[in-house]
Amino acid sequence: MKEFEVELLKLIENNANLELDKIAKLMGKRIDEIQELIDKLEKKKVILGYSTLIDWAKVLDEEEVTAMVDVKVTPARGFGFDKVAERIYRFPEVKAVYLMSGAYDLSVSVKGKTMMEIGHFISEKLSTLDSVLSTTTHFVLKKYKHDGIILEDADEDDKRIVVSP
Q: Is 141 in a helix, a strand, or coil?
């Protein structure tokens, strides 16, 4: 991959809402060159999509619960962990699946409206899969930083005047 392609990817990874003319100016390229490059990277599935990071805790009616589920599995013969991971990531409740080192094989990020909803998913869908041996669930109580972005800066709320002796 060429250096300017990596530069473009880093720019849009940090801000997917960055306008083409700004990207072109930052990279010293023409707008049509940037659009062509983005189209090429989308076609090659280097760029898989665009998303917006939302602090759902600030949206009163749309609160959701996130859980990280450690899953111990039996790998499928000839496929390793890939087939099991594929079976798990196809559930709409699952937002991410990672193959891990350590005591558990997979780390699964699950979202739901309530802890009860996530509990039902784990007990009725995830843990009943033939290859799943055990699960351990950790509910996210508060997010401080996500994808490199600090969600709530503690200094913003602290408006006190600094007094030094």
A: coil
